[in-house]
Amino acid sequence: MQPFTCAMLSLFAILTISISATSDAETDFIKASCDTTHYPDLCYKTLSPYANTVQKNAMELANAALVVTFKSAKSTSKVIRGLSKGHDLSMRDGEAVADCVENISDSIDEMKQSMVAMKDLDGPDFNEKMGNVKTWVSAALTDEDTCMDGFEENDGKMKDTIRGYIVNVAQLTSNALALISMIS
Question: Where are the coiled-coil regions (predicted)?
Fold first, then answer.
């Protein structure tokens, strides 16, 4: 094994600086974009892992935000479905959970529609397509809020547990909507 030579060390330093500069520029773009959202810390935390894909492209950032939101909504739906089974739920909690599962399912469908539409924005009808995307993401946010409305009269652990999951998804959805709005 050869020891590091000065030339090798210099090349390594140049590559490291080059990689760091690129990475810093990409994460700075994400940070600046996230600062325009309602939940900038959550935005940056969830989207910075996509820096290499996003680079400095607002469209890629919005797509990444949709993907993160979609995954979170699917995960939340699975958790809520699990909470609805095998527990001694009050009738009121049971109804609220069932409604919440339906609302989150609708939210997931709207996220899917948004992700599909974001891949086909080219052409003269760009504004119309972006309007549809914003409408679907807004509807998803409304569905998430409606889920929590079903627990308004309820007290207890179930409400608090579900609120934690739904608030996270709603904040991600709000961030995605803000990033999408920056494009149009």
Answer: none
